[in-house]
Amino acid sequence: MQPMRSICSARSRRMTELVRQLLWSPPIDACCAPPQPKTYPPSTLKPQARAFNRNKPLAPESNFTMRSRVSFVLVLSLLLSSVALYAQLPEPRTEPIIGARMPALSPDGSQIAFVYRGDIWVAPSSGGRAVPITRHIAYDSSPLWSPDGKWIAFASNRNGNWDIFAIPAAGGAPIQLTFHAQSEIPSSWSRDGRFLYYSASYDSENPAIIELEVATGRFRRVAEDYNAINAPQISPDGRTLVYGRHGFPWWRPRYTGSAAMQIWAINMQNGERRRITDDQFQHLWTQWMPDGRNLLTVTIAEKTPDSPRMGERLPIFQDNARRTPNLWVVDASNGRKRQLTQFVGGAVRFPSVAYNTGDIAFEYEGHLYLLRAGQRQPQKLSFTASQDDVQSTRQRELLTSGVDEAEPSPNGKQYAFRLRGDIWLIDIEKPKSTPDKRNAEFARRLTDWVGDDSDFVWAKDGKTLYFTSDRNYHQQLYALDVETLEVKRLFDRPADVTRLKLSPDGKQLGFWVSGSDGGLFTLNLETGEAKKVLHEPGTHWYGLGGGDFAWSPDMRWLCVQRRAPYGAWNLWILPADGSGEPINITRLNAFHSQPAWSPDGKYLFFFSNRAGSALYALPLTRETARRDDKDIQFEKPKEGEPVEVKIDFEDIDQRIRRWNNQAPQGDLTVASDGKIYFISEGDVWQVSYDGSESKRLTSGGGHGALRVSADAKKLYFIRNGELFVMNLAANNRIDKVEFKADFEFDAMALREAAFVQFWRAYERGFYDPGMHGRDWAAIRERYRPLLAGVGVPEEFGVVLSMMVGELEGSHTEVSPRSSATVRSPSTPHL
Question: Which long-range contacts (CB under 8 A, 24 or more apart) does 794-798 make?
C-alpha cells in the first residue's frame, strides 16, 4: 500500500501513525518529507509469514478482511477531511450592533439608515446585515432620505465644520451641498426633492430657517428669530413649516421650565407664525406625519423630581411612562397630544417617520426600534456588521515628556513618575557608554491599568510604592512591589482616598477618605490597621472637605488644613493618634495652606493671605524676644537624639509672623539643613531659616513636584513635563533625567476608562450628594454598552452628554475635540 501524505498538524500526524501501525505503512515525517524505509525486529514480524515468494503467491485475503480495510479507509478519509476543515480559517463572524443612533427610514419604510461608529450605515428596516455607505475618519451624522429614495443627505464635519452632503443611497461618492463656515445640519426635505431645510445664522447673529435648492446651491432665509430655532420640518403639502423654538439641549429631555423647547409653525405663504404647544415640557425632534395634520414629537407629561430643597436629600425617584420621554402625536391645529409609546426609564430619541407609510423608527437605550403604522407595540431591531477599523485600536507611542507627577526614591537613585495615567521608573544616573546609556533611558512601566494610577509615595526602604487607583470605581489605596510588580489593595472601602503622606518613621500612611463617614485616616503599614483620627465628611476634592496635612518631626502631632462652612481655610493641630480635639491655630477668615514643620520642632511654616500673600511662620512656643531683636539660627538635631515638639496653644494665633514676602504657591518644604524651598511664580525658590533672604533658583516657569533629598544636597522637580535634578553642592547645576517611555495602549479600553473617570468626577463632585434622586451607578451601567458604537470623539461626547443629562443639572454639557483633520474655512459675511 502506498504511504499516505499527512498535513503538518499534530492531530493528523497522530492519526497517520495510528494508520501506519494498523496497515504496516511507513511513518510520515513531521514536515512532510519523503517516507523513509523502516525495518521491524523479528519479535514483532515473522519473516517467513510475510516474505515475498515469487514461486508461491500470497494467499488471497478473506472477504471480511477486505471489507474491513475498505471500511477503515473510508472512515479514515472522512477523518482526514475533518482535519483539513479544522485547519482552515474559522467562519467569518458578524458582530451585533450596539449603540446605533439617529435612524432614518426610507420613504417606503423598507430600509433604514443610521449612524454607527462615525459613519452612515444602511440596512433592511426589519433588521439584518448593515453596510456602511460613508467611510471617513471624520464624523458623519444626521442621515435623511430624499423623497424618491435615491439619495441620503447627511451632515459631516470632514471640512472642519458641519456641512451638508448627499450620497447615493446605494453608496458612492458624496456631493457637498453647503460650504459656509456656520454649522449646517439637514432636518427636512421638501416632498418634491427640490429643497432641504435647516437652521443656521448667515450674516446675522440671529438663527434662521434656511431653504436650500439642492440642484443649484441657491438658498433663501425663510424666517429669523432672536431665539434658538431647531430642526425645521416642511409639511407634505409645503404650506406649513414647524420647528422647535428655544429649548434646552436634547440630552436633557426631562427638563421642565420656561426655557423648554416648544413647537411653532410658520405659514409659508404669508409668513404668519403661531405657537402649537405651551406647557413647559421639552418637545424634541418634531416631524410631520404623512397625513399632514398631525405631528410626531418626543415629550413628557409629568415632571421628574430633580433639585432638592436646601438641606434635603431626594430619594431615588420612581419613574413612569408619563415622566419618561416617549413618542407623542400632536394635532398641528390645536396642540392636543396623545401618547404613542409607553417606555419607562431612559428616553426615546431621534424618531424618524417614513414619508409614504408612516412607519416610525427611533433609538432607545442603545438600540433601534420600529413602530409600523397601525401597530401599537414597537419592535426592537437587530443588526449585524462586519467592518475594518478606520484606525488601529492598538497603538504605541514613544514618550519623552508629559510627566505630571514624580517622586525620587529614598536613596535618590531612581525616579518614579506618572505618565498617561501609569507609574513608570527610570534610573537617574545613566551609564556613560553609548549602548548601555541608550538602554538605560527606556523607562520601566510599573503599572498598566488603563485608568488612573496616581498620588504615589515611596516606602522608607524603597521597595514599595503606595498609590491610589480607580480600579474599583473609587480611588482606593494600593501597594506596589517595585521588583515583582505585584499590586495589593490596602484599604477596602467604597470611598475615595486622596493625599497620601508617609510618616517620618515610614511606619504609617496618612490619607483622606471621602464620604459622610470620611475624614483623615492613618494606616499602620505593619499591622494593616486603619484608624480615623479626624472626622471630616466630604469629597476632599474641588476644595470640599480636608486639604494639606503634615506630621510633626516627633510624630506626636498632625497639622491639618480644614475648610470652614463660610469658606475660610484654617490650620488645625491635633494629636496624631486622634486622642484629642483639633485646635484652630490660625483663627482668621482667610486662606492658609501647605503646613511644614521645621526639623528642629520650633516653627510651623505655611502660606497665607491673612496679611497679604506671603510665607508665614508660627513659633510653637512663646518667644523670649521679638524677631528683630534676636538672631534666629537653625540647629540641626543631633543624630540619634529624638526631637520633641512642644506647643503652647494659648494665644497661639497671636504669634503668627509674616516671614518672607515671597508667596509659596506649592510644595513648601523645610529641608534637613533648615533651608526652606517652594514653588512660586512657576519657579523654585529658596528662603533662609530666619526668612531674611530669598533666592530664585530657576527661571522660565513651568516647575512643579519639588522634592528635597534627605541630605538637603539635591532638589528634584518637573519642568514642563520633564524630569530634572538640581545639585545644590555643585553650584546649583541642573541635570535633565532623560527617559523614553514605550507606551502601548488600547484606544477602546482607554475610552472606557475615560468614561468611568467622567462618571466618577460627577459621583464625587456633583453639588447634590443625592444626585437629584437618581441611581448614578445604575445610570453608568446603562450607558456603558453604548461605547461599542463610538468611533469618533464626537460620539463619545454624545454618550457622556446623555449620561450626565440624566441628572437634569445645568451647565453639564460635554464639548469633545473634533474628529476633523482640517481647519474650518472662514466665510466672509456682512
Answer: 794/118, 794/139, 794/141, 794/157, 794/818, 794/819, 795/101, 795/115, 795/117, 795/118, 795/139, 796/751, 796/754, 796/755, 798/101, 798/251
Name which of 670, 733, 740, 672 is nearest 706 in CA terms.
Answer: 670
pLDDT of residue 584: 97
CATH 2.120.10.30 in the chain: give the residue spans.
97-307+314-385
* CB contact at 8 A, 175 and 216: no
In the numeric block, which cell numbers belong to residue 240? 406649513
Q: What is the pTM of this model?
A: 0.81
pLDDT digits (tens, 9 = 90+) for 413-462: 999 999 999 999 999 998 887 777 788 899 999 999 999 999 999 999 99
CATH class of 97-307+314-385: mainly beta
Report CA-CA distances (Å) from 357 to 190, 232, 241, 361: 17, 21, 20, 12
For residues 790 and 799, is the Cβ–Cβ distance under 8 A? yes
Direct distance between the N- and C-terminal alpha carbons of the chain, in angstroms, rounded to an integer: 94
Query: Alpha-carbon distance 812 to 819, whole Å?
Result: 21
Max Cα-Cα span within the chain: 134
Contact 265, 242 (CB under 8 A): yes
Write 168-176 long-range contacts (CB < 8 A, 24+): 168/133, 169/106, 169/111, 169/113, 169/122, 169/133, 169/145, 170/133, 171/122, 171/131, 171/133, 172/133, 174/134
Residues 416, 425: Cα–Cα separation, whole Å = 5
CA nearest to 744, candidates 391, 395, 393, 423: 395
In this structure, what are the phi and psi dihedrals at residue 86, rounded to the nearest 5 degrees?
Answer: -60, -30
| Residue 312 Rama label (left phi>0; alpha psi -120 to 50; beta) | beta
Q: 542-578, pLDDT tens digit by residue?
A: 666 789 999 999 999 999 999 988 889 999 999 999 9
Residue count of the chain, please give it: 830
Q: Using an 8 Å Cβ cutoff, are 465 and 415 in contact?
A: no
Q: Is the dihedral of CA 17, 21, 22, 23 positive or negative?
A: positive
Evaluate the CA torsion angle 632, 685, 603, 636 in order and state its sign: negative
